[in-house]
């Protein structure tokens, strides 16, 4: 009901089913069914299960920060529980299946579901992303932060107009696609991609924050410190800005989207092979050249033909329902998405490049600082929401020498501020 909400479903859940009270009791009551508060009090890490994943996504979808007062015991418990789920990176995975695979070999079957004449498996994504969004939103509300952009809470967003519902779908359409993709064996991969990610939706300027704990505190967690150790850990925040550009590999069509190929070669276009996850899924020694028209990708090895990934056009944000349907047909499909961009924060300027994983829309971006030796960073996260999008995830630190990367407690939240296209710059 929530992910297909166009206004009436949410109202029925709130007014008739009293889901706000149910969620508060499930998560925040001393004897709540989630068991989270009881576990923390006993020095144990709260449960990570299909039920808690579903409940955390519902918590974010329906969160109303204004209902939380500073001195309310429920508020203190909410911050404590969300902080554990958001910052416990060594205990709670950001995504399932593992982010280390670009095309996971298999996924667990989800709960069976029949919609009209179609059968699906429904599996909730991991709870870390909604926990991050809920934690940052609630913390910012209580501290009345106004010095940087905060997550747009769904309950505070204006409902989409009927025209937008018809053109790009409802708010949580990609969350629905992600959940059914994770629970259902679907082929081909490009159709999975269009279910879990809307092409063109990352293109633009994003502003937000990254949040982190003291590195010594994170080391203590890795050494076995209990979850309540996080409650006394300082959390720092820094503003950051990203300027992102989307590039699409398209299937063959009447107007050849891959002009570097000719003849029947366009009928068998294959995306760039998947590489090491620490390199944002790019194979080693892949050559990438960016122009105003897009990217030219040449894989390593002799005799490899270059691929042209087209720059997302100005129509990407405003496709009609017929155009979206056409994009899923065999005539013209988005086969792969590569992201490039730049950014800056108080830590310095950096470059970004990455890919979107087809099965669930996981965004993986490699981050390289232009000046200074800050090592290698990898961002992984989801774009949540079709109309009022939030980009949330975690940063992972790795260098060229260590064998094991460190999933540092560094949360990233971004909100789009402007949309940029090859000759278009407009404020939202």
UniProtKB/TrEMBL annotation:
Taxonomy, superkingdom: Eukaryota
UniProt-recorded name of the protein: Uncharacterized protein
């Amino acid at each position: 009901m929530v992910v297909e909400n166009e206004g009436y479903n949410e109202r029925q859940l709130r007014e008739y089913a009293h889901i706000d009270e149910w969620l508060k009791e499930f998560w925040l009551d001393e004897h709540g069914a989630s068991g989270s508060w009881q576990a923390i009090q006993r020095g144990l890490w709260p449960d990570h299960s299909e039920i808690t994943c579903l409940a955390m996504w519902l918590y974010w979808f329906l969160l109303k920060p204004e209902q939380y007062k500073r001195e309310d015991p429920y508020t203190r418990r909410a911050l404590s529980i969300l902080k554990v789920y958001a910052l416990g990176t060594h205990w709670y995975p950001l995504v399932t299946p593992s982010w280390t695979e670009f095309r996971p070999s298999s996924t667990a079957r989800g709960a069976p579901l029949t919609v009209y004449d179609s059968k699906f498996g429904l599996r909730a994504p991991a709870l870390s992303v909604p926990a991050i969004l809920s934690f940052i939103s609630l913390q910012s509300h209580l501290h009345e932060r106004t010095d940087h952009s905060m997550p747009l809470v769904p309950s505070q967003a204006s409902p989409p107009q009927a025209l937008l519902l018809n053109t790009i779908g409802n708010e949580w359409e990609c969350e629905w696609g992600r959940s059914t993709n994770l629970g259902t064996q679907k082929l081909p991969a490009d159709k999975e991609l269009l279910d879990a990610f809307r092409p063109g939706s990352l293109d633009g300027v994003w502003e937000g924050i990254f949040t982190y704990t003291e590195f010594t505190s994170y080391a203590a967690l890795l050494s076995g410190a209990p979850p309540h150790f996080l409650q006394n850990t300082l959390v720092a925040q820094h503003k950051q800005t990203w300027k992102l550009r989307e590039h699409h590999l398209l299937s063959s069509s009447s107007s050849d989207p891959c002009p570097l190929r000719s003849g029947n070669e366009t009928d068998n276009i294959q995306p760039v092979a998947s590489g090491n996850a620490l390199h944002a899924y790019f194979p080693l020694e892949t050559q990438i050249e960016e122009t105003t028209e897009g990217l030219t990708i040449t894989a390593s090895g002799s005799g490899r033909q270059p691929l042209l990934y087209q720059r997302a056009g100005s129509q990407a944000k405003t496709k009609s329902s017929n155009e979206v349907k056409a994009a899923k047909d065999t005539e013209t499909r988005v086969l792969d998405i590569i992201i490039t961009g730049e950014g800056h924060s108080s830590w310095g300027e950096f470059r970004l490049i990455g890919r979107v994983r087809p099965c669930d829309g996981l965004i993986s971006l490699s981050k390289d600082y232009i000046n200074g030796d800050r090592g290698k960073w990898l961002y992984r996260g989801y774009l949540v929401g079709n109309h009022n999008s939030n980009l949330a995830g975690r940063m992972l630190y790795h260098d060229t020498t260590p064998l094991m990367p460190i999933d540092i407690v560094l949360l990233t939240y971004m909100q789009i501020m402007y949309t940029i296209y090859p000759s278009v710059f407009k404020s939202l």
